[in-house]
């Protein structure tokens, strides 16, 4: 096995089998890792408390007498835990494998390894997890060194995230147009063309507004019909979320105050995230995303519910940049962070909740209420917003 070429990491190995524990410790130490061994969950908690902030990874067996690896993972990831960002790699020979894998990943594990497995492969997985965590942590520290550089980096990364999503929608819409185009009078072709035009408009707006993407000055708020916006966006993303089914509940006009292009960006992200969560669970009864628009006193809400994998109730979504439970599965932790910032800059908010693993998730975009544009003195309205 290759020698560890990166900055040596420190790993906490938890396993009640003394032979496995000693062998893993030896193999990891030979790779240049700093290794601490724990034969139980209480020993692991004590080691974490004694060397707070020193570890780069926890490698834990699931099946142990008394408290299990799931108990340790829940304790590490609980709200307010100082170890919340610490990656955890779970190992087990326990069945049912699929159910436990989904449970572990939904609780926040970065990887899940089923034994029997070559211990050398397990060591390599642990090393790769540490290297990835160190890169992410190094990036976070670099961004924190200078607020200006941090904002530039986040803006560029966030814009790339948005452009990638919107470019994919443009491509999908273009493909649909080619397949469906059957003449000027073809209504399906016209729908695809309209979707293509909307995607292009959004893509152009994001690319043009990198420097003002997160500032209120970059996008003047105005009244818009939230119901119409939801209908437009659901039609736009339907080809991309298939085979998931979007149920956009019909509603009368509901006027909100904000920036419609920014609101579309948020809703596109929420629908694509919901589709990803559904694909990860692959429910037997099919994927369902329900979108409703609600009027609640001085606010307006778009509620997006899915029947995807969900997450533990204790996992609070605080939308920190680069905070994600999918660091080793392609997640950058930027999409919802950006959406939350955009919502705040329109005077609104974004929340995400779940009733538990396999229970789906609910995202709520809240915006200030508004009267219809025709009923407003626009100049007076804009002065009041300022």
Describe the structure.
The structure is a single chain. This protein has 11 helices and 12 strands. Residues 1-7, 210-218, 325-330 and 381-386 have low confidence and may be disordered. It has helices at residues 18-30, 41-50, 69-77, 97-107, 119-145, 147-180, 187-208, 226-241, 260-281, 335-345, 378-385, and strands at residues 10-14, 34-38, 57-61, 88-92, 111-114, 222-225, 245-248, 255-258, 288-296, 299-306, 349-353, 361-368. The chain is an alpha/beta fold and 386 residues long. α4 links the parallel β4 and β5. It has 2 domains: 10-145, 3-Layer(aba) Sandwich (Rossmann fold); 168-385, Heat Shock Protein 90 (2-Layer Sandwich), CATH 3.30.565. 47% of the residues lie in helices and 17% in strands. The longest helix is centred in the middle third of the chain and has 34 residues, at 147-180. Strands 2-1-3-4-5 form a 5-stranded parallel sheet, sandwiched between helices. A 5-stranded mixed sheet has the order 7-9-10-12-11.
């Amino acid at each position: 096995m290759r020698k560890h070429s990166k900055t040596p990491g420190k790993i906490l190995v938890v396993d009640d089998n003394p032979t496995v524990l000693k062998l893993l410790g030896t193999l990891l130490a030979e790779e240049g890792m700093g290794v601490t061994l724990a034969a139980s969950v209480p020993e692991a908690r004590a080691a974490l408390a004694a060397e707070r902030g020193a570890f780069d990874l926890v490698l834990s067996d699931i099946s142990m007498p008394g408290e299990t690896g799931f108990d340790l993972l829940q304790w590490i990831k609980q709200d307010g835990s100082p170890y919340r960002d610490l990656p955890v790699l779970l190992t087990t020979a326990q069945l049912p494998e699929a159910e436990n894998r989904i449970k572990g990943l939904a609780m926040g594990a970065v990887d899940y390894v089923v034994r029997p497995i070559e211990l050398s492969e397990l060591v390599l997985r642990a090393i790769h997890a540490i290297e990835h965590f160190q890169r992410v942590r190094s990036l976070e520290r670099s961004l924190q060194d200078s607020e200006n550089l941090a904002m530039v980096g986040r803006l560029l990364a966030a814009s790339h995230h948005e452009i990638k999503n919107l470019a994919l929608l443009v491509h999908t819409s273009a493909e649909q147009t080619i397949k469906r185009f059957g003449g000027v009078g073809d209504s399906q072709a016209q729908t695809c063309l309209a979707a293509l035009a909307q995607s292009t408009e959004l893509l152009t707006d994001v690319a043009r507004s990198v420097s003002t993407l997160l500032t209120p000055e970059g996008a003047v708020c105005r009244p818009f019909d939230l119901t119409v916006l939801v209908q437009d966006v659901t039609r736009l993303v339907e080809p991309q979320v298939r085979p998931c089914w979007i149920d956009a509940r019909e509603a009368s006009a509901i006027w909100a105050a904000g920036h419609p292009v920014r609101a579309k960006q948020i809703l596109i992200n929420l629908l694509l995230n919901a589709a990803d969560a559904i694909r990860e669970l692959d429910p037997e009864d099919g994927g369902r995303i329900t979108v409703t628009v609600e009027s609640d006193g001085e606010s307006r809400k778009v509620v997006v519910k899915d029947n995807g994998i969900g997450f533990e109730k204790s996992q609070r979504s605080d939308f920190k940049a680069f905070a994600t439970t999918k660091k080793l599965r392609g997640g950058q932790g930027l999409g919802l962070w950006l959406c939350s910032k955009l919502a705040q800059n329109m005077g609104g908010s974004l929340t995400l909740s779940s009733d538990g693993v396999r229970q789906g998730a609910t995202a709520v975009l809240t915006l200030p209420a508004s009267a219809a544009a025709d009923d407003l003195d626009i100049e007076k309205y804009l002065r009041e917003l300022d």
